[in-house]
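The instructor's notes for this session suggest beginning with a concrete chain rather than abstract definitions. Hand out the sequence below and ask the class to guess, before any prediction is shown, which regions might be ordered.
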Amino acid sequence: MGDNAKAPPVPHVYKLALVMALAYLLTIAYASLQPFRGWRLPPEDLYGFLSAAWPRYITLEDVLANAIAYLPLGFLLALGLRPFLRPVLSVIAGALLAAGISIGMESLQLFLPARIPSNIDVMANATGGLIGALAAPLFAPSQLIGARLIAWRNRVFRDGALIETGLLIAVLWVVAQLDPVTQMFGTGHLRATFDLPVYFFHTPGRYLTAEAAVVFFNLLGLGLLLSTLLRADTHRGLVIAGFIVAAIALKIGITAVFSKSQGALAWVTPGVMLGLSMGAMVLLVGLLSFGHRTRLWLSMLFILFALAAINLAPDNPYFSAPPQLASGRVSHLLSFSAILRAFSELWPLLALSYLLALSRQNHARRPS
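After discussion, reveal the predicted structure:
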């Protein structure tokens, strides 16, 4: 009876890991099977590529992209399977599942003339999955790192599954900054996807104003969204600053990789700096002191303003896509850039949906 009453210390952590693993698997499938057209019958030897000679067309960038891409999958699978298997078996299962998924994705590429399956890709994927699976036990709630992370999360953020959803959405905003073709904090750019008309033509003054407005409203929207997740006794400004610094660090890193000629700070423009300074000033000086309900609705309002600003802004005629993403061949870099762009485009919708759900929950809890 005592054994039946026992439960994992934080069971929702494992459930969340499995849900995230499934979502990430769908992302992997999307990236692996682009461009989703020209399907054909594959050769009889479906797995012949596994024993093929070392391919001549492989590049270091593709190898690294494949390894890094499967690292989170191995990590999430191993962590999510931990309640059902012994720790060692969960690591082995996570690594084997990641390798099996890679073989399946590469085999499906035989149905697409634009994709070329590769045993090197499988090896890189499996290596990344193994590294992620080996790291998973360190982050289990019963281990030192995992216990400290859970303790920090419980100390800083409010309780509840909806709060964790909001935290995941905030993390996705940071990850979206890895897209090398979007401007700083430029989430929700839907003009190319939906072929929206251009309302204003480029002038230096208009572009500076639009760029500052995009950064300003996104900073306020994200900051206020994060403030609704935090406990009342938490230093809100410090946590929000941590997310902003992480986003800036990722943008510096991705710019350094793709814009070597211009440098890692090519994204730093007068408009961006104006928006950052004004947003930080308004957020820290005034808005964070408002009540929870007011901050929630203001966050929705500013995210809507940011969405309007990015889609009304004039196009920058001096911008050119990085050469790594402008090549004719379909590469893993191009595929995952499309994934990141999808995160960036859909983020305002995810954030607004979450904030509406949070407002409904708060309304339902109010005494009648």
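Then share the key points. The chain has a mean pLDDT of 81. DSSP finds 14 helices and no strands in the chain.
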